[in-house]
Structure of ATP-dependent RNA helicase:
Amino acid sequence: MTEDTLMINISSPLTNVHSISSKKGRRLSRQKWTANNTRTGKRKASSGVQAGGSAKRRTISASSRHVKPNSAEREKRAAAPVPKLSAKARTSPQVPGESKEHDRTFIKTSSLFRNNPEIPDVLSPVVTQVTEKVFTGNSFQELELHPHLVATLSKVLNVTSMTSVQKQTIPVLLSGKDAVVRSQTGSGKTLAYGIPLVQSLQAIQPKVKRSDGPLAVVIVPTRELAQQSFQIFQKLLKPFTWIVPGVLMGGEKRKAEKARLRKGINILISTPGRLVDHIKNTLSIAFSAVRWLVLDEADRTLDLGFEKDLTVVLNALNTAGSSRQNVLLSATLTEGLSRLASVSMTTPVYVHVSEAAGSSAEAAEHPRQAAPPAAPQVDSYAVPSRLQQHVVVVPSKLRLVCLAAVILAKCKYERGQKLIVFVSSCEAVEFLLTLLSAVLSDKPAGSHKPQLAFGFFRLHGNMQQQERTEVFQEFSQSQSGVLLCTDVAARGLDLPQVTWIVQYDPPVSAAEYVHRVGRTARIGARGSGLLFLTPSETAYVDVLASHNISLCEMKMEDVLSTLMQDDHFKGRGRWEGKKAGSRELEMRERATVLQTDFENFVHGSPESVQAAKKALQSYVRAYTAYPSALKHVFHIRNLHLGHAAKSFGLRDAPQGLSLAAEGTTKGSRKDIKRCAVGFSAQPARWSVNSQGMCGYRRVESTRGVRA
Ligand SMILES: Nc1ncnc2c1ncn2[C@@H]1O[C@H](COP(=O)(O)OP(=O)(O)OP(=O)(O)O)[C@@H](O)[C@H]1O
């Protein structure tokens, strides 16, 4: 046994893998790599707990990233008494059908709590958070809208008073002007453009006919947002049945879409790629009647590399020649968006709600015309005032158990909590879904069927469209549960009653942070966010602060303390009621038990090991692709591959980890566009140094990279 490893013997009934949802697709994907996977009857874990070992002290040194234990500390540890080990493992009650698995004894879990970098205190700079007032005291009746439209707003959409962005935007758009609209997430931007659009189309005489084709084109970055916007138009158009909305998006059958286009769609909602597809291949698409162009989440549409597609769309619209109103909206205006505004718009009105909120009432009444926003304002993002933002600093090795503890705390020990967990790749979403749902399930007494007290859902770009739609609807309607997803769910989605946003893998920019966290605390509701950072990534807090975003630190120990409520993860209970510090020691032991469960599960079958490796590979690949402006925070050389492997339930850093471009699947490319950068053109060779840290150098090989 190494200095770093000790064995404890934990016996608890272990369960078979189970499915967590009635959905066939999800069940199948889980069963794929879990069919042979049973958890061992004996769990042997190394807790790394020393009898006299108090919690590692935090230091305030922000520069101490990946600090190795100094020699004095190492000596102290070496000298510390090591708990006596049981020579023989206790066996757990045998579950029928698990006898073979029980032969797998003496599995070691190397210490979770040793050799971690020290956790610096997070000193979030003091910033003045930009806030916006969500509601105004003004009702829609004050506007000159069709009475049926006002009635629909209150009866069908259940809205009566205007939000700030609606109060400022609707009159501008009703007057026929172009607008660039920025207001915080969940503030009602969809209706801010939807209401004037419907008001203007219903007033056209003679009445609009299907055969007129598109009168309005609404472009959104994701399929789910396209569906969501389409549904809102369906509701708004209830009294105006002669106006037909329609949606076009990737993943749907082109032939069916062509048929609908032929029949006639008046309000066309589409993702950019699919619209370009139809512009190129569908004869019946004609833009001569278009009067409105709306780019919702316009900065994201550019981010995703759709700039080319947008150029095709704009050219097609411009060639058709009709004059039209242009509207760009986003909670995060960027330079790219302003550039686009100057390309496609004439003297737009800039509606910036946060500016107005902080300035005089008169300014609030009169949005600025034509002048683009001043530079500092562009970088200050407003976030909902009832959003509580937290950050937790967790060493790589402990990430997985901390995530599990957060999920248990919210979903098992509290009621009615709905979480969204953002991770960086499709592979990691799939892997975590299977792992967490298997390991965090309960097995009620007298039953061999594991049960989850809450549902897990997943959403990423590698899923079939039908399943994406089903999951989106299911999670929307669910009262509680956890949605594991990539950034496909970061923008625009209005999922009701989401209470927590967990950013397990940090986002690629402050703007993406704002959009992700904006899936909660919508339209004046409360909500919370938790950002996971490793000790080497704490400078990200300063990056966010430069955009006026302030986070409050949550201590890792507080997160892990949930495990004290869950006797599934009870070790031998050696620390119970003993001297001071015993609670922390027991908590560490429980964390180790949980990690051992994860590792046993992963190493229970070659398929699951493979899935873990694939997920780790995609994580590392995503890590290499943070933009250069964030390399001082997220640099691959700061990533400890062995520690990162632990957070995927792997006992060691895998050999031959391929980071080649060919390993990137179609879906993950879409979801983590950043990951494609640099691999195919200039492959790098990865290596792990004696401390297990990653490094890379450029190589000529086109076959990619190996650790
Ligand atoms: N005037 C209103 N009164 C009450 N609820 C409203 C009002 N306007 C919109 N809402 C509701 O607020 C929620 C958020 O609206 P919406 O999705 O349009 O926000 P958003 O500003 O576009 O957010 P994001 O920036 O995240 O896309 C929706 O559920 C919508 O029905």
